Every structure is written in structure tokens, then in C-alpha cells.
Amino acid sequence: MEGLTQMLQSPYESSGDLLGRMLIVEDLTADVIELLGSSLEIDPLFFATHLRLALVDPPVRDTFFMDGREQQRARTPVPLRSEQFQGGYDAFPFTKLSLNDGSHSPPRYSLFDDLIYYWTEELPSVFDPRAPTLLSLSYYPLKIIVAEWMNFANLMLYTIENLEYSIEDLSTTLLGHQRLESDLARLQSWRRRALDSSDKMTSLVRAVKSLSPEPPYLETWESLFGDIGHILNRTDMYIRRFDGLIPVFSSYVQLVESRRSIIETKSITRLTYLALVFVPLTFVSSLFSMSGDVLPGKKNFWIYFAVAIPLTISRFTGHGDL
Residue 102 pLDDT > 50, yes or no? Predict the structure, then answer.
């Protein structure tokens, strides 16, 4: 905070090479918002639109132990080096070949580090250091967002194909029914995400066009709009495929439910037959109290069968209501 305060309060002197300064702020706090707002006369609503709860994966450089092992280790942190596969890759190609001998891909630790990487590798063609605009400063963040949406579209395609192939392996057992309900819930969730993403991309194009890109840079922005349009077309196609899968899964759920009801009906029928056999026998045994000469092994034990068997047969034939 002290360094930021000193930089903002010190007079700005431009030189031949230095045409301006760019501030990239990560993790906004109340003190930073107050300092930037008062020094640069920024509307508080500008910061309010950037404050939100972002549920994302932790950075690559952070290491977490899920089984509580950190309690058994020393308090001195042990750095675990994490390297990207084959050195990583750029989210989008540059307009010219970079000759820097440093990192040839963004660090992927955080969006903050990625922005610094892209700005130091190459200035965007839409950026005029003598008269920078908010739209030109948003060029690289928008390119990163579009690249992430492309990955999201590929993930949607994988999910759709996985759901389509899962239908072939479904069974009418209880485990298959649970899996079917889980797939149906996942299908509806992905359809909702696809609709939200389509709305967000449409709103993004509308917002960028409302800022009226300068004529010299229209071709660059049209290229970005073309990428977004390609992702929108893919997303709309995937939404239609999601819509086509929902009736299939719903009908399959109904089919499994009907088969389960048939199986349950057969089980109830078997129980009914058992009841038709044992209820008359139990009634006769309670009627004779099964004592004295009617006890098993006594001379009059045959009377129990002489009464119980005809009564049971009459129950099966529908006669002789008790």
C-alpha cells in the first residue's frame, strides 16, 4: 500500500520511451478501492461490478494435503516444483514470432500472471499508448476469456458424447436406475450451463460493439467477434443436442420405472399366494387351539388337515369367505 500510495501521489513525468503506466490490481480490498478511487477519480460502481465470489480451481503453485498430513510436517514450507507439460502453450497465437529467450508460455498460476506475460510479450495492435482506451486495455482479458470458452465448448462436446454412449450400457437394475437419474441430472445441469454461456457471449459481443471500436482496429475486433461467433454456433448446436437427449433419458427412466413396477407387482403376487396358503392354516390352528388330542402326533391331529386343506382350496377358488 505504501508503494502504491507513493506512486499515485508522485508527479508523473513522461519520457521518450515511457508513454504511460498501467496498473494491474489483484484481490481488491477496501483500502485499495479507496486509494484508487480518490486518486484517479474512479466511480465506486466500477469496483462494485468487479467484486464477486469466484469459485475456481486453486493456482498450480499451491499444494494442499487432504488427509491432514500438514499437521505432522514442519512449519517450514517445502516448495514443490510444478512444471507444465511440454512447457505449456499460449491461449492464442501472437501476431509475430516472439524472440524472447524467457518463458514461451503463460505461467498459468493466475490470471494476473497471465496478463503480465501477454503484455510483456507483445502489445496488442489495438492498443495506442498515446491515447489508450478501456476497450484496448480489455483486449487480452477478452482473448483469454474466449480461449477458455473454447475449452469449455470442447468439454461440452466430450460430455455430450459421454452421455450418448452411456445409454448403450444402461440396465434396468437398481444400480442402472440410479446411474440413469444421475446422468439425467448432469444433462440438465450442462444444458443450463450452455444456455448461460450463450447469453454471456452474446452480451459480451453487444458490450464490445457498444464501445464503438476505432476504424483502424475494426479488423482485429472482427477477428475476435468471429471466434466468439464460432463458439456461439457450437454452443447452440450442443444445446440442441442436449435438448434431444433429455426426452431420450426421460423415456428411458419411465421404461425402467415401468419394469420395476412390474417386478414389484410379481413380488406382491407371490406374497399374496403365500398369504392365501398360510392365513387359512393359521386360522384353523387358532380355532382348534392345537391342544389336547389335536396336537401334532396325537390321534386326532388329522382333523386339522381335514379342515385346513379344504378351507385353503376354497380360498384359492374364491369360495368360502372367512
Answer: no
